[in-house]
Backbone:
């Protein structure tokens, strides 16, 4: 079992160093600055991941992936919104990036 801590991002008052010192091995986080329904840019994913790894932790869980109401309700534009998700070629192995 892995001890994980939730981290909001660089503005969180609890730092990655705090989490590591408290015994965390992994981090649960998301790219909260990316609007719901938008594809996460690979560059932002890699930057966030590198920041976590620089403290000797790993990004264990992606949390709070926002799904727009248009997708939930299959409203007009639903297929187009669904097609905008990141292509599978951006993932490696167990869905890891980088």
Residues:
């Amino acid at each position: 079992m892995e001890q994980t801590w939730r981290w909001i991002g660089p503005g969180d008052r609890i730092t990655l160093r705090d989490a590591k010192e408290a015994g965390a091995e992994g981090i649960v986080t998301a790219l909260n600055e990316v609007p719901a329904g938008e594809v996460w840019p690979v560059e932002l994913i890699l930057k966030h991941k590198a920041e976590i790894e620089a403290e000797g932790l790993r990004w264990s869980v992606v949390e709070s992936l926002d799904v727009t109401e248009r997708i939930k309700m299959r409203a007009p534009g639903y297929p187009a919104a669904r097609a905008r998700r990141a292509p599978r070629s951006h993932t490696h192995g167990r869905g890891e990036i980088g």
Observations:
- The longest strand covers residues 58-62.
- Residues 86-95 have pLDDT under 50 and may be disordered.
- Helices lie at 16-21, 42-53, 69-72, 78-83.
